Amino acid sequence: MTTSFADTTGSRGRGSLTDRTDVRVWTATITAVVFLALGASIGALAISKDAESSVPAADSSAAVTTGQSIDFNATAPAGFEARDPAAPAPLPGTVHDVTLHIKEVSVAIAPGVKQKVWTFGGTVPGPVYRGKVGDTFRFTIVNDGAITHSMDFHSGMVSPSVAMVPIDPGKSHVYTFTAEHAGIYMYHCGTPPVLMHIGMGMYGAVIIDPPDLAPVDHEYVMLQSELYTGKHGADPDLNNMLAEQYDAVVFNGYANQYKLAPIRVEPNDRIRVWVLDDGPSQSSSFHVIGTIFDTVYKEGAYLLQPGAGGSQALDLMPAQGGFVEFTPTEAGSYAFVTHKFNDAARGAVGVFQVGDAPVMGHS
Ligand SMILES: [Cu+2]
Fold this sequence. Notes:
Immunoglobulin-like; six-stranded mixed sheet; five-stranded mixed sheet; 19 strands; globular; disordered N terminus; disordered C terminus; binds copper (II) ion
């Protein structure tokens, strides 16, 4: 396909035969994409037991990497527990002293797949912190790793020269900022090559509540990122990151996590989902199959509030975030995805299980 596209570019205007060939190639491509997307939607609307049919799984053998192979059709391993998707409550008070340890560890990223990662706090993503406009955060960052790292909080305005300094192994650094603007913000390691440090898992989120946040029944946070693996779980290859040859795209660090462990809500519950694209390089189009968002907040502003139109997807580039709100009224399995479906097929799928939905083939 890449070759066809290159040929198109190089041969434009040379002859109609080439043009017709290109048209056929692109028509076939578009048809295939529409077919896959349509099939996905129909699958989800049919309320499959675990949304398996909602998204075609990627053929991991087609991935051009030297890393680990991930089975996107795998079932949950015994004793599987998903990371808690609930958004944390705002930290109490107005001054928050937090100690955060940098750890280089191995974590599970998919059923049967462990990968060496560099982390804030021992998990990928790192912890989600939450406060209000006007709060002061005083982070003590301790480097328990073997190499130099650093920190960059997008949630506060600071001098990079003072705050984002290298933290050598065994050393610590105090990073202070006052939250002046609401939103959901990325934090990440900023040590060169930054792509490698983010690509190995060094990111998380800080939520600064807007002052007028409406009450909801459930509030979740989904941090999307792509994962890169290395042979037998060793360090991934920076060249794969440069070439965007990622092995999975995930919410909260684990492939298909909330498809393996759906998030239970009840019909007519009002739901808010904070979404942040931690990248490092891929965009996100957050969509919940079967519903329409009546509220969308993106990058510090409401794009939509109840009483106006509807929104089908929250579009985010790397290091952008916001939230959506919706109220599913009918019982069912509502899959959520990035509507960039080649990424959904690589692990970016979850399910809101709304009420006791009938299970196709089992009811
Ligand atoms: Cu780092």
